[in-house]
Amino acid sequence: MSNAAADELLFEIDDLHVSTVEAPGQPSVEILKGVSLQVAPGEVHALMGPNGCGKSTLASALLGSPEYEVTSGRILFRGDDITDWDTDVRGKAGIFLAFQYPQEIAGVSVLNFLRQSLSARKGMEMSVLELRLELMEWMERLGMEESFMERYLNEGFSGGEKKRNEILQMAVLEPEMAILDETDSGLDIDALRVVASGVQEIRKDRPELGALAITHYQRLLDHLQPDHVHIMVDGRIATSGGMELAARLEADGYESFL
Hints:
Blueprint: H1 3-7, E1 11-20, E2 30-39, E3 44-48, H2 55-62, E4 68-77, E5 80-81, H3 87-93, E6 95-98, E7 105-109, H4 110-122, H5 128-142, E8 152-153, H6 159-173, E9 177-181, H7 189-205, E10 210-215, H8 218-224, E11 228-233, E12 236-241, H9 243-252
Helix pairs in contact: 4-5, 4-6, 5-6, 6-7, 7-8
């Protein structure tokens, strides 16, 4: 790749090898075995693969989870090597992870959580009134009730509400690179459509947003229409292409990529 092309990249994973962190009675196990992927501004990439192939490990490693160790390779964001950056530093820099299983935080409202997160992300305080007005606008666009902002974060939320809340966070925090870790997991077709349309709504406002959507299913891709599709098998990207890969996967299964 030329230097000019490299300068245009938003996010790059370069020959990444990742292992579990060794613990007493639990030897380290290599999970990612040389993953490379490049995302330009405004691109949506989809990563598909069977259970246990390393998809969610990749998402965790990209945000610096202490459960995993990068043994070789690099992660670059806007040309900076962030492989050793702490999780909070990556988040403040503009990398966002939508969790497969969002955590409940009792006693902390969606409004207050987002106020604190936005303060850390932007380095500035936003008044409750300003944030409330912004949330009301986004909630209308995402088809959410205004009362949602007063509820405790993910406490008593349905699966669809949890995922929609992740999209709301992505809208308000304005990341530059979003990683969606099986956002479609556990959603029925209507909830999936709402979440996918929320992602597209954010992209209307912020066309430079890069995204990596990790999923098992073609149905999310049908809504997102990614620019690139990657198939991961046994800790490596077996092949990359366009939507035709998802169609082939639907027809022939993962065995055709082994």
